[in-house]
Amino acid sequence: MTAAASAALEALTPQQLLGRPEVLADVRDAARYLRGATVLITGAGGSIGSELCRQVARLEPRRLILLGHGEGSLFTIAGEIATILPANRIRTVLADVADATRIRSVFAAERPTIVFHAAAHKHVTMCEENVCEAVRNNVLGTRVLAIAAAAASVAKFVMVSTDKAVNPTNVMGATKRLAETICQSAGANCATEFVAVRFGNVLGSRGSVVPIFAEQILRGGPLRITDRRMKRYFMTIPEAVSLILAAGTSARGGSVCVLDMGEPIAIEAIAERLCRALGREPHTEIPIVESGLRPGEKLYEELLTAEEGVAASTIDRVFVAPQRRLEFGSFETAMMRLFAAARRDDADGVVQIIGSLVPSFTPGAHWTPAPQLAIA
């Protein structure tokens, strides 16, 4: 994002884009489980991960371990956190979450008591073009971390998920659904409490629509949206992170926390609001044109499957959806086939196996049709 676009977005209020004020969850209960804890955050240099680092650091952990794969972003957030916590309470770890040997070593050395897993490949089109890497990072990486957390007797493991995991039509969403399933299964035979937190689009995160739209507006347009009918759930980065922290206090092991983001907003409405907020009139000064749905995209996202029921939690705007655990042996067998196909760079095979593990997954027409495989 250019400096001009960044400055323009920083001057905007959430009200101007969301049509509602920003609402931060009460994190006082989160402070009770984070104060004095050793907290590890994966994806620490990312949009969500870096804000998690900021908010956790202010809640006085004993140690904060920033784990990431990008040297530049990790260096930046570590420097910022050093203004909040003393240097001897911060550790930066360059690591790939799918590297089991490295992750085991980190957990053995640092002994975290709380883990926030925010590392993921999140861009739908990128994951459609790099299926095996999406599986390696999003699925294998989550499994590696979950096993390490259980072995190290971590108290709480909170994974950041997405509404795209519900009835997924793309590989990214399907891999996140598998990551949720790993968390649901991993806690069956250990003391670690595994929880997934599911929400929608985050305004201002890297590669999200708002920075892209801002760049197009500042260039004079046209502003390109995929489809005028498309709607998405939106929230700000601070809202998302405060709700992740709050959800960790009320969710039970193996459950998915669903965050209330209000009503979904039309992508075109976001585009029009951003135009006006930046002093330009949509459709006249800045043309808005449709580019069409890209592979894996759908018009409307969902927060829950038909089988999931939610119960209110003790935290405002947080709901808990209990999950059915899969039979672990059969699930593990299929997962090993999935990882083997990913190592062979067999994209079609990977998509086929994902379909057997996530029955609600509907891959796009660009994938070679294949018969469903049985899980066991």
Question: Can you walk me through this structure?
Answer:
This protein has helices spanning about 5-10, 15-20, 30-35, 45-55, 70-80, 100-110, 125-130, 130-150, 170-185, 210-220, 235-250, 265-275, 330-345, 345-355; strands spanning about 40, 65-70, 90-95, 115, 155-160, 195-200, 200-205, 225, 230, 235, 255-260, 265, 290, 310, 320. With about 375 residues, it is α/β, with parallel strands linked by helices. It has a domain at about 15-205 and about 235-260: Rossmann fold (3-Layer(aba) Sandwich). It has a nine-stranded mixed β-sheet with strand order 3-2-1-4-5-6-11-15-14, sandwiched between helices. Strands 7-10 form a two-stranded parallel sheet. A two-stranded parallel ribbon has the order 8-13. Helix 5 links the parallel strand 2 and strand 3 (about 90-95). The longest helix has 21 residues, at about 130-150. The N and C termini lie far apart (about 45 Å).
The CATH class designation of the domain at 17-205 and 233-262 is Alpha Beta
What Rg do the Cα atoms give? 20 Å
Strand order of the largest sheet: 3-2-1-4-5-6-11-15-14
CATH topology heading of the domain at 17-205 and 233-262: Rossmann fold
Global mean pLDDT: 86
In CATH, the homologous superfamily of the domain at 17-205 and 233-262 goes by the name NAD(P)-binding Rossmann-like Domain
Give the SSE string: HHHEHEHEHEHHEHEEHEEEHEEHEEEHH
